[in-house]
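Chain particulars:
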Amino acid sequence: MRRILQAVVASAALFGAGTVQADPSFGLGLTYVFGGDWAAGVRVFHDDEPDSVVLALGVDYKFGAGSLRPTVGAAYLDDDYYLDFSLGYDTQLQALDYGVGVGAAFETQE
């Protein structure tokens, strides 16, 4: 399982580094993790252009499991909110999971 997480992080670093051409933006939101858990977290988006799909890296705190969840995913970024689909790693259960989230976006272009 550790090798899968390392591969996800390495892929995000390799592909993210080539696409980081614009100013990043940030988000704070709530995620439903498939399997019945909820999480609150922060996101960093690779671009600040509203009305676009962007790469999202982040970390969540899962309320039910009481664990941290590093994430990588794709998000639709608007002027003041985002919607995202994320692949995460539950550090307590040591398992991959998926989630859908929504939250406030900051530092986007006006």
Q: What stands out?
A: Helices lie at 2-19. The longest strand covers residues 95-106.
